[in-house]
Amino acid sequence: MHLQGFILLMTGHQGLAVWIFFLLFFPGILVHELSHWLMAKLLFVPTGRITIWPKVNRDGSVWLGTVEVGQTDTIRGSLIGLAPLISGSAIAVLIGMHLQLGGWGNALLALDLPLLSSAIGSSLTMPDFWLWLYLLFAIANRMLPSPSDREPWKPVVVLLAIVAVVWIASGWTPQLPVEVEQLIAELGGFLIYAFSVTAAIDMAVICLLAGVEGLLGLLLQRRVSYRSR
């Protein structure tokens, strides 16, 4: 939201700001919509037109892309809505591994500044570092499901909540095979890594953006107001 506000300050034109925002996040928008489409195809759910184009609605909200998906059951609808998060997390992990960002995290956890400096220096020597970092930022920040994507989740969440309550009340603890426990642990680590990398990059952007937006607002004597929906 603040990135779009910063672009609006720079251009002074709402329509142009929307288009620049759209182009900036185009890789993530493309992955998001294609993820819906591919998951629907894998689950044998009919699909229609894919639209990747910015559209400003009457209420001020902006649509950056849509995929027409046929009516289906709750389970398949939930998986289709979840698809961008799955693919985005996978891509974030792969890019993070390519850029050796894991070394940054290990150094930060150990509070080892020389190791952190060495890890950052090693990553920055890659000729394509900034390209992959941009792609990581664009894709990871468009992987979260939209409100319409989350709509089919409601019955599933209620069902899982009921199962959890009954499970806790019964005191039953299942004995899972070691392989299943390892798989669950690996999936958990996978998601933690993907979200940690995204959060770290976003925190850096937030700090930079907050300062630049404030300074630009003072220089131009303009201010962008935000409202939550």
Question: What can you see in these coordinates?
Answer:
The termini are close together. The longest helix is centred in the C-terminal third of the chain and has 43 residues. The chain has a two-stranded antiparallel ribbon with strand order 1-4. The mean pLDDT is 85. Helix 3 packs across helix 4, helix 3 crosses helix 7 and helix 4 runs antiparallel to helix 7. The protein has one domain. The chain contains ten helices and four strands; from the N terminus they run αααββββααααααα. With 229 residues, the chain is mainly alpha-helical. The chain is globular, with a radius of gyration of 21 Å.
The largest sheet has its strands arranged as: 1-4
* H and E order: HHHEEEEHHHHHHH
Average of per-residue pLDDT values: 85
Structural class: mainly alpha
Helical content (DSSP H or I, runs of 4+): over 70%
Kindly state the number of beta strands.
Answer: 4
Count every helix, treating DSSP H or I runs of 4 or more residues as helices: 10
How many structural domains in the coordinates? 1
